[in-house]
Amino acid sequence: NSFFSSVLPPPEDPVLSVYFASRDDPSPVKLNLSGGSYRTEEGKPLVLEVVRKAEQQLANDMSRNKEYLPLDGLADFNNLSAKLILGADSPALEEDRVVTIQCLSGTGSLRVGAEFLAKHHQERVIFVSNPTWGNHPLIFNLAGLSVEVYRYYDPKTRGLDFKGMLEDLSAAPSGAIVVLQACAHNPTGVDPTLDQWEQIRKLVRSKSLLPFFDNAYQGFASGSLDIDAKAVRMFVADGGECFIAQSFSKNMGLYGERIGALTIVCTSKDVARNVHSQVLLVVRPMYLSPPIHGASIVTTILKNSDMYKDWTIELKGMVSRIVSMRQQLYEALQARGTPGDWSNIIKQIGMFSFTGLNEKQIRFIAKEYHIYMTYDGRISMAGLSSKTVLIQLADAIHAAIT
Ligand code: PMP
C-alpha cells in the first residue's frame, strides 16, 4: 500500500549495467575501465599533494568559518577560474563583460547554463556531438531545450568526421546552441586540430550559432593548461559570445568536491550585468548557494604561484602516465600481431580511448577476461596501470579480435 506502487524500475542504463556487472564479478583479477576517474600506477584514486597542502593550510586558518557563500560563490574563485580558461590577459576580462559563477562542478555548470538559456534564449535547439558524454542530453532535455546531434566521430577512420560536422552545423538554425567539448573529447578521445577549430569558429560565427563549451578536461589533453584552452580562447578573441562550463574534477582530482564554474562571455558590460543577475535567479531556487570547501581548495592553489606550479607538475604527471599507457597498450597489441590498425589508441587524446571494439567483443572480454568497458568500446586509459593489467587487456583484445 504505497503511494508509489506504480513507480516502475528505471530502463536499463548501459553505463550503470557495466558498473553492476563489474561490481558483482567475484574474480580477483577483475578490472573496471568504464569509469572516468584517474587511477595511480597501483590502481588507486589519487589526491594531489598540492591539494593536501591546500587543505592543511585551510584547516590551520582559524579565521575561516562556515557561513553561506553568496549565490554566485566565492568571488576569488570566480575571478581565478575565469582567468584560468580565458587567459589572464583576456580582453573580455579587461572589458568587464564576463560573468563567472561558481557551480557544482561541470555538471552543475552545464545545468545552470542550460536553465538560463531555456529562460532567456530564443532558439531552444541545442546540438551535441555524436557521440557525446551521456549526461549531456539528459541535462539539456530536463532544462527544456531540444537536443539534436551533429556528426563528429567517423568509425571507419576512428577519427573526426570533420566534413560531416561542418555540414550539420551549417544546416543548424540561426541562434542554435552548439555544445563543443573544449579538449579531450569524451567518449571518443578525438579533438579537432587548431586549423579545424578555426574553421568551426568561422562557421559558428557566420551562422550566428551560440557556442557552449564543455571544459571538463583542461590540462588533460596536452598536459598544458594554456594549450588546452586554445580553442576556447580563439572564440573569445573574436569578441563574440560564448558559454563555458568548467570543472576541476579531473585536472585537480576534486571529483567529490563538486567544484566548477559557469562563465558567460558577453558582448558588453551592460549585457553582462543583467545576465549575471538573471543567472542568480536560476541558482537561488535550485540550491541557494554553492559549497565552500572545494572552492577554497582551488582558490588557495590558483592564488599562490608556488602551489600553482606544483599543480601543473602533478597534472603533467597524470597526463604522461596516461600517454605512456597508450603507448604500452599499442605496443602490446603490435607484439601480439592483433589484426587491425590500433594507431587510434596512440592518436586519441585525454582520458579515454575509443577502441572500435563491438558489443559482442566487449561482452566476450567481460566474460572471459573480467575486464569491463562501456558498450560503445570506450576504455579509460587512466584506469590502466602496471604491466600485468596492461597485458591482461592486450590479451583480452587479441582474443576478442582473433
Ligand atoms: N563533461 C564531460 C565531457 C565529462 O566527461 C564530465 C565528467 N565525466 C563532465 C562534464 C562533468 O563532470 P563533473 O560534474 O564531475 O565536473
- Total helices: the number is 15
Unreliable spans are none
Class by alpha and beta content:
alpha/beta
Oligomeric nature of the chains: single chain
What is this entry, summarized?
This protein is α/β, with parallel strands linked by helices.
What do you see in this structure?
By secondary structure, this protein is an alpha/beta fold. Helix content is 47%, strand content 14%. It has helices spanning 14-24, 49-60, 75-86, 91-94, 105-120, 135-142, 162-170, 194-206, 230-237, 269-287, 293-303, 305-336, 343-347, 359-369, 386-401; strands at residues 31-32, 98-104, 125-130, 146-151, 153-154, 159-160, 177-181, 210-215, 242-247, 259-265, 352-354, 371-372, 378-380. The strands form 4 sheets. Strands 2-10-9-8-7-3-4 form a 7-stranded mixed beta sheet, with helices on both faces. The chain has a two-stranded parallel sheet with strand order 1-12. A two-stranded antiparallel sheet has the order 5-6. Helix 8 (194-206) links the parallel strand 7 and strand 8. 4'-deoxy-4'-aminopyridoxal-5'-phosphate binds at residues 36, 105-107, 133, 181, 186, 214, 216, 247, 249, 255, 260.
Could you name the key traits of this structure?
binds 4'-deoxy-4'-aminopyridoxal-5'-phosphate, 7-stranded mixed sheet, globular, alpha/beta
Write the layout of secondary structure elements.
Blueprint: H1 14-24, E1 31-32, H2 49-60, H3 75-86, H4 91-94, E2 98-104, H5 105-120, E3 125-130, H6 135-142, E4 146-151, E5 153-154, E6 159-160, H7 162-170, E7 177-181, H8 194-206, E8 210-215, H9 230-237, E9 242-247, E10 259-265, H10 269-287, H11 293-303, H12 305-336, H13 343-347, E11 352-354, H14 359-369, E12 371-372, E13 378-380, H15 386-401
Parallel strand pairs: 1-12, 3-4, 3-7, 7-8, 8-9
Antiparallel strand pairs: 2-10, 5-6, 9-10, 11-13
